[in-house]
Amino acid sequence: MIIKNGKISLIQGTYTFYHYGQGGFNDHQWGCAYRSLQTLYSWFKWQGWTNKPVPSIRDIQQILVDIGDKNKSFVGSSDWIGSMEVSFVLNAHLDVTCRIMSLRQGDTLNSVCLELSEHFDRHGTPVMIGGGVLAHTILGVDINEELDAVKFLVLDPHYTGSDSIKSIHGKGVCWKDASFWKKDTFYNLCLPLMFSKIIPIIKRLLKYYVCHNIYPYDVAQSSQKIGYP
């Protein structure tokens, strides 16, 4: 239930909900952070930022091995990942930079509610939160500062029901307050930043300019040649 007279900030755009058992793969009890990562990745795919397919859990593990974060034995295991690994994969595969926010305990999430609201309004990307052995995806925040009331729209990767909208609305997504997270557990939040996408584009443009000996007065014309507005 939303808050009366609250300010609601939500993700902008489309995503695919990934959860336990997706595609017939048994990841119960350990795959929630992978599923949250897949949901975040799908957001970028739906917005047209990449043509790459959403990586499988095994693909994610291989990416982490390839970048040197994990040992080879990690591939094919049931080992958990956290917010840092989520940010590593998004950066390595999509050139997306993520902001990591840390909380000493989950029930203090209200302390960063305004920053989350700004994130959704400015960047519009879903947020992964992980602590202990649990991970969730945050899709929005509802704030009434006068009442000191805050709710978070949570997409739950632990969901095991059907992929019907009716079933998901009943069990897979819900407004929660900060008490939903454990007060005795440290949490990290992974916030993908949209403006980071401009960095690889600039690099590609500069490489093109250097290779073709293009000078500043040719920039506008050359951008059109290689398909940039």
UniProtKB/TrEMBL annotation:
The keyword Cell membrane does not apply. Transmembrane segments: none annotated. GO terms for molecular function: deUFMylase activity. It comes from the Eukaryota. Residues 7-190 form the UFSP1/2/DUB catalytic domain. GO terms for biological process: proteolysis. Keywords: Hydrolase. One of its GO terms (cellular component) is endoplasmic reticulum. Signal peptide: none annotated. It holds the Pfam family Peptidase_C78. Belongs to the peptidase C78 family. This is UFSP1/2/DUB catalytic domain-containing protein. It comes from Aphis glycines (Soybean aphid).
